[in-house]
């Protein structure tokens, strides 16, 4: 603190001079423009997607299989594939991710190995998704013999999601005041009981929000599933040992295949995928802020 | 009349003994044991051990990634050699005289990253300054929610919108043959990186204690003078870390560059040429290549290069962030 204080030289400036006030106004407007521009960009992206895609959304587009060599029909197998993936990822990533979060927030002490674990988790979040794809291919598809299958894709995406879930859980647990834990312990609860009865229920909204954010990111990823079992065309998935279609890959392949010009499928798929993820996230964010308002200390 | 009453009494007695019996039964049952067990030290240690074990599995994923990448690229190291890959200028993986030089992909990645950072760092840092130094708390909450919302949009959707909107614009207004060039990919990657840069640099700016701002105001500085003379220097390491993390994301971004960069084989000399990146090369070729071939192994070696590069970037950013966090902790 003192070190920084020494470093920064605060010069006495010409208080209320015209120049300073003008610079202030200009900078305020300029930085505000940058910030608003980013917000407008988000609105533009969503609006553009909606306008281009809304025309192709229909009952049969969502609930039919692709037809006429992928130039017609619907995207139901891809939707089901993505839902399967979401289920598999939550089955694998939730227990491990939440447990790791609990470990880091409640059990781990400040030590060198724990710091290493933290660094490793922070770095996992930065590993490029295509590297996860290579890893999943080498590990799950080839070494574990799962081949190109939903299970291999789910495991790969679970690895991608893990750091998000861990960080969210740890942060949610850290927001709970120590007094609550101390009160529970003073009433004779052991650490596990305090955790199960007091800490986890209070932190649950935060944990669930983080977990769903992680899941929705996994559902939108394309690179990790490229080599681990996503299919250009497959029937509606019923077996986790079979390859399957998935929304992001369907979108990618339809958008970049010059031989199958079907723009309505491309934009419809983009809207379904983005709409699914953004509605989930908007709902969960509102729910969390509602919960947070109720729980104030 | 007596009989039914007797019967009723009998029933009650039986009923009561039933309750007692079942109580006794329950008290010895597993449920009761578990109920009593729920607040013991034994459970406490069992839970601790289980959670600790699960907690450490995360690190095995990272070790697994490194291990499998190294294991799969051993053949490439043996048969092609590290230096002829990293410093090789030609990428002809399928010709009879196959060349596996990474330079085209590495240079392409660098161009895309430079463009992305040039696009997102000024906008991102200025937005963060506004949110942290000027904006009202209500505006800040809304803006942050909107910006964080961007993370929800999958990168393949960014690629698609880039194809539909930016590529025609670039082709119309710039003297290039095709809109699929490093510049296009870089601009869209810059947008993808914006939320990372904004939210982390905003955190860094806001972690500067208010006393410093108040001191500066007391000396007669305006808000902007305070921001660039006091807050930005104090938060510079955090902002730098935010830029580093944005850079890591830019290098690792796959779908956008795969769809927009053009994937040419030559070394691009400027962002106005079609480029291939490390991520794009891996994504495009790994699915098609023969398993166990040299080409296959080389792609894993390329993945290893990418992994090491992003690992170093993220590790540096992480260390800087940790240090700047400690600076203001009291």
Produce the secondary structure layout:
The complex is a heterodimer of chains A (297) and B (330).
Chain A lengths: L1 H6 L10 H36 L5 H5 L2 E2 L4 E2 L2 H32 L4 H15 L2 H15 L6 H25 L3 H9 L4 H30 L26 H10 L6 H32 L3
Antiparallel strand pairs in A: 1-2
Chain B lengths: L1 H27 L1 H8 L3 H39 L2 H5 L4 E2 L6 E2 L2 H32 L2 H13 L5 H19 L8 H25 L3 H9 L4 H30 L2 H6 L17 H8 L8 H34 L3
Antiparallel strand pairs in B: 1-2
Summarize the structure in words.
- The complex is a heterodimer of chains A (about 300) and B (about 325).
- Chain A is mostly helical and about 300 residues long.
- Chain A has one domain (about 75-295): MetI-like fold (Orthogonal Bundle).
- Chain A is about 70% helix and about 0% strand.
- Chain A is built from eleven helices and two strands; from the N terminus they run H-H-H-E-E-H-H-H-H-H-H-H-H.
- Chain A has a two-stranded antiparallel sheet with strand order 1-2.
- In chain A, helix 2 (about 20-55) packs across helix 11 and helix 8 (about 180-185) runs antiparallel to helix 9.
- The longest helix of chain A is centred in the first third of the chain and has 36 residues, at about 20-55.
- The model of chain A is unreliable at about 1-5 (pLDDT under 50).
- By secondary structure, chain B is mainly alpha-helical.
- Chain B folds into two domains: about 1-80, no CATH class; about 80-325, Orthogonal Bundle (MetI-like fold).
- Helices cover about 75% and strands about 0% of the residues of chain B.
- Chain B contains 13 helices and two strands, in the order ααααββααααααααα.
- Chain B has helices at about 1-30, 30-35, 40-80, 80-85, 105-135, 135-150, 155-175, 180-205, 210-220, 225-250, 255-260, 280-285, 295-325; strands at about 90, 100.
- Chain B has a two-stranded antiparallel sheet.
- The longest helix of chain B has about 40 residues, at about 40-80.
- Chain B is globular.
- The relative contact order of chain B is 0.12.
